[in-house]
Amino acid sequence: CFRALCCKGPPPPRPEYDLVCIGLTGSGKTSLLSQLCSESTENIVSTTGFSIKAVPFQNAILNVKELGGADSIRKYWSRYYQGSQGVIFVLDSASSEDDLETARNELHSALQHPQLCTLPFLILANHQDKPAARSIQEV
Prior knowledge:
Keywords: GTP-binding, Magnesium, Metal-binding, Nucleotide-binding. Belongs to the small GTPase superfamily. Arf family. InterPro entries: ARL15, P-loop_NTPase, Small_GTPase_ARF/SAR. It is built from four helices and five strands, in the order H-E-H-E-E-H-E-H-E. The chain has helices at 2-6, 29-36, 71-74, 97-112, and strands at 16-22, 50-56, 61-67, 86-92, 121-126. The longest helix is centred in the C-terminal third of the chain and has 16 residues, at 97-112. The protein is α/β, with parallel strands linked by helices and 139 residues long. The termini are far apart. It has a domain at 16-96 and 120-126: 3-Layer(aba) Sandwich (Rossmann fold).
């Protein structure tokens, strides 16, 4: 018992993975990351620029760079792609047709980007709880 309690070293470090989280303004990127980090989702404001959150899981840590989704910021997204090991693309499934088309164009642009095209993508159709939400097939 003594040896098990005293001689046990620190736990092995959890692997860390760097992800980038992109999507249009209002798609729910900040809310998603706040939920994953067990933070309050009240009084959330849109991200201007970028933010980084460490999302802890039992076997790994995800370091997520969330990039603001405003039109004036999207043109700079590619500057933050380097070193990413995966992509989370969040879209508002209850958005207007125009916004959905813009999101589709941004997704296709990201899928074709040389630094992202070989990475795993998670496409999250957010706001499924809203009455105007589209199904997965419609999205």
